[in-house]
Specification:
By secondary structure, the protein is an alpha/beta fold. The chain has helices spanning 16-26, 69-79, 98-108, 130-138, 142-149, 161-167, 178-188, 209-226, 235-244, 251-258, 264-289; strands at 6-12, 36-42, 59-63, 84-88, 93-94, 112-122, 156-160, 192-204.
């Protein structure tokens, strides 16, 4: 296996327009194209690429019928040829030096088994709507994830193929939180992680409240899978639900630090949104713990 060869894994779910921008950016990488492959996993096989859809020469497209981005990523890993796995999402736009900079760092630091790259948001205009203000504070805090609990999201993650051999693949039963759950296993397995500021992908900030609500429900469903001590009927389930409804007071510090340029009114708006979404997440977590099927939407 070529030590420099990299497999880029991208799950997609009926998002061909965004994916085309991602693939265009990957076709312009400064890293030699003969030294990396792109594996796109279509998680909605009934949806096919538009006619004359352009795929880079080093890209293959496969289908995965099992719902969920983690099942899709696992399908990509299984057929990959690279020693290094690079993960991003269909709506991300990698910087031209994304692969090169991550590979250079990993080569210079062989004891580091995971790289969490920077995720830079971009917005529709300079005047941010309330949802974008929320995203500015809360979306993709990769550096914080690494610092606080040695985790990373798969919108921008590099690791070795051997990491999956050591701690296993992503949990395919999860619709959300699978990157966190895998990161915890990786950390326990001694696979060190570092945040890399110059391995960057750009990601569009969510714009509509409905998008945040969908994510909040996915997160709630994922959290239910991590919960312990509830059988769907016990008092512990009720107690946990009540506890999850508490106001997110600790978020005030994050809002102030990540939203330094926000007005007081905007900060209050972000806090109110955070509280509302935490209630939505808690309720979905409660329902899934009671037996509802977790949904990807």
């Amino acid at each position: 296996m070529n030590k420099a060869f990299i497999s880029v894994i991208i799950p997609t779910y009926n998002d061909w327009d965004c994916l085309s921008l991602c693939l265009e950016a990957l076709s312009k990488q400064s890293y030699p194209k003969e030294l990396f492959e792109i594996i796109v996993i279509n998680n909605m096989p009934g949806s096919k690429p538009p006619e004359n859809y352009k795929l880079p020469d080093n890209c293959i497209l496969i289908d995965e019928n099992k719902p969920g981005s983690y099942a899709s990523r696992n399908a990509g890993i299984r057929i990959s040829k690279g020693k290094i796995m690079a993960f991003t999402d269909a709506d991300c736009i990698p910087d031209k030096d994304w692969i090169k900079n991550a590979r250079t760092y990993m080569l210079a630091h062989p004891n580091i088994g995971r790289i969490a790259g920077k995720i830079e948001l971009f917005y529709r205009s300079s005047k941010l709507v309330n949802v974008e203000l929320y995203e500015k504070v809360y979306a993709f805090n990769q550096e914080l994830y690494v610092k606080n609990d040695a985790t990373a999201v798969t919108a921008n993650l590099f690791t070795y193929r051997s990491s999956f051999d050591k701690v296993g693949f992503f949990d395919e039963n999860l619709m959300s939180g699978g990157d966190y759950e895998w990161s915890v296993r990786a950390q326990k397995g001694g696979i060190l992680i570092r945040y890399l500021d110059n391995a960057t992908v750009k990601h569009p900030a969510r714009y509509h409240l409905g998008e945040l609500l969908k994510k909040a429900k996915r997160v709630g469903g994922g959290q239910a899978k991590f919960s312990r001590g509830g059988d769907g009927k016990s008092i512990k389930l009720i107690s946990r639900f009540i506890y999850d409804l508490r106001p997110p007071i600790k978020s005030i510090k994050l809002i102030n630090s990540r939203g330094k340029d926000l007005t007081l009114s905007q900060k209050i708006t972000v806090f109110r949104l955070r509280y509302y979404l935490s209630i939505v997440t808690a309720y979905e977590k409660f329902l899934v713990s009671k037996g509802k099927k977790a949904s990807r939407a």
